[in-house]
Amino acid sequence: MPAPPKGLFILNHRMTSNKPYSLGKSQRLKSRKQIDILFEKGKKITQFPFRLLYLAEPGKREVKAGFTVSSKNFPRAVDRNRIKRLSRESYRIQKIELENLILKNRTALSLFFIYTGREIISYEEISTGLKQVLDKLIRVINADDTQNT
Q: Are 53 and 111 in contact (CB under 8 A)?
C-alpha cells in the first residue's frame, strides 16, 4: 500500500492539534440568535475603549467572543476592520486566564466586545484596555462564584 502524500499529513496534523493561543471559528460568537440573547439578558462592563456584554450560563465549558465597531464613529470599513483585527489579536493573546477559570467553573461564557472609542488607537492601548476589561470580568465571575457556594 503506498504511503499517503506528505501534504495531507501536515493538513490533518494542523486540524487536530490543540493550540492554546488560537481563535478559531468555534471560539467566535457568530450566531445571530446567541447575540440577540446576549443583548437581552447579558450584563455589561465598561472600561474605555471597550464595553463588554457577557452572559455566563451553566453548560458546555466554552468561551465565545465577538467584536464590533460602530459605523457611526468609523464610516470607513478599513478603519473598523483594523480595530476589530487588533482587538481580536489582543484577546487571542490574553484569553488563557479566562479560559482556565471557565474550565474550573464549568460554565459557558459568551462575550461581545464593543469598541466605544472615537479614534483609532495603537495596539498597545487596545491591549491595555482589553486586559483591564478581562480582569474586571474575572473578578466579577469569581465574586459570583463565591456567592453561589
A: yes
Q: Is the peptide bond before 20 cis (omega within 30 degrees of 0)?
A: no
Q: Which residues of 104-122 are buried (b: 16+ CB within 10 A; e: fewer)?
A: ebebebbbbbbbebeeebe
Domain spanning 24-144, CATH class: alpha beta
Contact 131, 97 (CB under 8 A): no
Q: Which segments within the chain are labelled E, that is strand? A: 43-47, 50-58, 62-69, 107-115
Q: What is the pLDDT of residues 54-107, one digit of tens each?
A: 999 887 888 999 999 999 999 999 999 999 999 999 999 999 988 888 888 778
